[in-house]
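Could someone model iron/sulfur cluster with this protein?
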Amino acid sequence: MGDKPTIAISHLGCEKNRIDTEHMLGLLVEAGYGVDSNEELADYVIVNTCSFIAAAREESVKTLVELAEADKKIVITGCMAQHFQEQLLEELPEAVAVVGTGDYDKIVNVIERTQLGERVKQVSAEPTFIADETTPRYRTTSESLAYLRVAEGCDYRCAFCIIPHLRGNQRSRTIESIVAEAKQLASQGVREIILISQITTNYGIDIYNKPQLTELFRALGKVDIPWIRMHYAYPTGLTPDVIAAIKETRNVLPYLDLPLQHSHPEILRGMNRPWQGQVNDVVIERIKEALPNAVLRTTFIVGFPGETEKHFRHLCEFVERHQFDHVGVFTFSAEEGTKAYNLPNQLPQEIMDERRDTLMKIQQPISWQKNQLEIGKVVDVLIEQENPITGEFIGRSSRFAPEVDGQVYVRGEANLGAIVPVEIQEADVYDLYGKVV
Ligand code: SF4
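Reply:
Sure, complex below.
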């Protein structure tokens, strides 16, 4: 064991990438490699890259260049490796391997081959692998929180999105496999599980011939995890059955992250969205009626090619009308290899930035108002951090997802990883403040 190199992983990108990082760490530790959290001390650095939009790629490239200057042996994994395999090997002599998004399970073998002097290219043209409960995993989130991947890849082809190209078509895990992993996580003290996939409402179609989210929720309802949160629900997939299962399953949070992307039918058609024919308003009203206490989060893209003032105003009015709890806004990014890359009428970045700011300004008072409504309530808060200086805690209520939403600042007695009742006393646009009762 002593002569095995030490390895650090530099992690970029989304929670899907994070799960891949955690599996690579698990596999390396199991194979007896020393994993160092300090890149400077490690012999090898695995850079798990993101290639979602241009800004993410720039960050990945910056990390690669810095490590190359520090004379590290670099293994490039993740979405950029899948996308730019040849180019990366050509342009970065320090790269000893590139590993695709469906090949990270072979990381130990890849490292061994590089040690024998090979420059490894391990990239499946069409990623098909998905890890399960038997794949070693070394979690990097707080002890009480874990992401759980239910499916990988996507069968839709939205005009702006490179994900299907990077991560392949949808492949779901079985309900048994997901439940087995949820039980493992529960036994490790996890209090909140976030179900991850591109379109969680489509979970199961590929292996059961129809969506199985309802069945999955009911099965997870029997696992000892207080909070189960789903990421990426498509409005059209929120059928009466799914909504009933959310209502009836005690630990499934009525938190819906609906990446709507736009409201105007012409733009949605241009985006080739799976539910472009549906009228947004009707779908959202139906959800609100069926789940009156649902927390709604959504994301939009402004500046899609051809978006006129008229289209943008439609979106602004839509945001005003629906009073979402949380809204994220991205400016369009033309990605080579997607349909939108070649569309005419691309907008200048300044206009896109202006539109993003305008939309955010519309949402801010709405978010502020929603948070004000929490004042005086006693809500459950999952305690995640302790400020050693002030003794104050930081956690989240079920209205807040990690990373993207706000936090709750808590005074009083509490234990890390516990869910405690907190009386909310103050609120601003993003965060809440209160004390343990
Ligand atoms: S649904 Fe559309 S935006 Fe979402 S991952 Fe699939 S192709 Fe991309």
